Amino acid sequence: MLLRLPDPYDFELSTGRFRAFGTDLASRLVDGALYRVVGGREVRIAPCPGGVDVEPLDDETRPVVLHLLGAPFDLPPFYAWAEQDPIIAPVVGRLRGFRPPLQPDPFEALITSITAQQISLHTAVAIRNRLVERLGTPVGEAWSFPTRERVAAAGERMLVEVGFTRKKSEYAVGLARSDLDLGGLAALDDDEVRTRITALPGLGPWTAEWFLARHLARPHAWPAGDLALRKAAESLYGVAVTELGARLHPFQNLSAHYLLTGWLTRP
DNA sequence: TACCAGGTAAAAA
DNA sequence: TTTTTACATGGT
Questions:
Q1: φ and ψ at A172, to 5 degrees?
Q2: What is the reported pTM?
Q3: Mean pLDDT, to the nearest integer, of A96-108?
């Protein structure tokens, strides 16, 4: 069934992230369609005029798919704002219709960040996929991401076996076994979310900021510690990322995504 | 073959 | 208080 997305929307461009660093088993692209497990069921998302074709589309899958495809982002005001910045304007123009995908699940978002700390995203995806194959469940073309309970029960040794460092395995299991209410974070303001996340060992400012950006879609999230964003910022603007964050207010999150994708796909 | 990669905590200075 | 170091796999 057709699920409309706010115009403009470019499916290929927007889902590039799921292919750029290797296959993501939990949000898997196969023959131009995106597969994801929602509530134990396989959902197929394919591009079609006016939005995407989603099967099955119901009250359970609709909000997850909308979130996954970045529907919460309001692009027109960002595009209008970007025109007054001569550096980001051409990047935004080239990526018209790019709607940054969001991570539907908070636990998955944080585990994904832990795997990606310090190492290349290619490496991180390889390690995370091995975790998914070990503790997740295959449903059709995609895999459901390992639940918090399964990771909590698995213990550090299993995570080391799939390639986590000893420290990262402690962080991931510690997160799973913590009493942090992950779903409840959405109700808190940015700073409170940062405080709650960074209170856990192994979850630092970079992880908290990407959680705000990629899970909660907070407009002002700005992962200043991110190596790739730093390179893009310094190369395109010639200024430090922290300074650039203020200049990009109030669209830091969308700007970060456009600068990163623009840098990754630079002509 | 080295070297680096979308960090974080703990040790050392 | 600020600066260094360990971590450890996969691509180039």
A1: -65, -45
A2: 0.97
A3: 98
